[in-house]
Amino acid sequence: MDIPARSPVRLSISCVSYALDAPVLIATLESLVQACVFAKQSGLLTEVQLFLIDNGPDQNNKNALQEIQEAFARQFDHITLLSGHGNLGYGRGNNLALLQTNCDYHLVLNPDVLLARDNLHIALAYMQQQTDVALLAPDGVGEQGERQFLAKRHPSFLVLLARATRHPWLCKKIKTQMDAYEYRDLIPAVQPLDIELASGCYMLLRTPMARQVGGFDPAFFMYFEDFDLSRRIARVGRVRHHPAVKIIHFGGEAAKKGGGHTRLFLTSYIKFLIKYFLK
Q1: Among 115, 133, 157, 257, which residue carries the largest CB count within 10 Å?
Q2: Which residue windows are coiled coil (predicted)?
């Protein structure tokens, strides 16, 4: 996809790790390297700074990240390992990089996401042309090629309860609302479109706008920090889904990760609800 761009830009990337799956992160970074090389060869990208953020519970997580840092040291212009702060949660972990970078754009990236080779070329060129876009979200599929509906509309309690519990009767009863929540009426899309909420697995942010709203809200330890940022950054710029910005996302839903994640999911939803709808 050939999109004329303005002057070359600088990109920073943050990748937060808790229970590191080293082979998956290595695959993520290998795809990221290829996307960076492609964007640099096009003349669009001039510098890449990678932040590996250790939220892990023990020294093993840090040691594994150090090995990965050394292995990829020549693949990025700068690669920094941030460790020793404990488990800050996803949003606060990413803030360690987002609130200190001086790059034009910042990519929040899960350690289980593979980028298409032209991902950054298309995304950055689009952001350069559409200067009112503050956050760009990708088009995603899962490991087996199944579509992932990463863009979301503002959720109702029943929709999130159904997603958190996967109760068959409830899911069937409110299927229309669940489909609308996932933009199944508009995605797959042909052209970029405005969306309400973006997934935190891949968020390409215009750095000045993201910093203007303070980055992620540290009140959200895990889950809904991405929805909250989407709402706040929409006050200063547009939030858009781009169908040509392709990723493969290996992550699953909270309901598939056990009761602890379901409790975190519902706790964060209550915080989200109080912040935006119960004041």
Answers
A1: 115
A2: none
Q: What is the pTM of this model?
A: 0.91
Q: Are β-strands 78-82 and 105-109 bridged in parallel, bridged antiparallel, or unpaired?
A: unpaired
How far CA 255 is from CA of 45, 82, 102, 259, in Å, comes to: 39, 30, 37, 7
Phi, psi of 75 (to 5 degrees): -90, -15
Q: What pLDDT was estimated at residue 227? A: 92
ω into 57 cis (within 30 of 0): no
Q: Which residues contact 234 (CB under 8 A, 6 or more apart)?
A: 134, 135, 196
Structural domains for the chain: 9-151+194-251 (3.90.550.10)
- Give the dihedral sign, CA 35/41/45/51: positive
Q: Please identify every stretch of the chain with a pLDDT value under 50, giving residue numbers as ranges.
A: 1-5, 254-255, 258
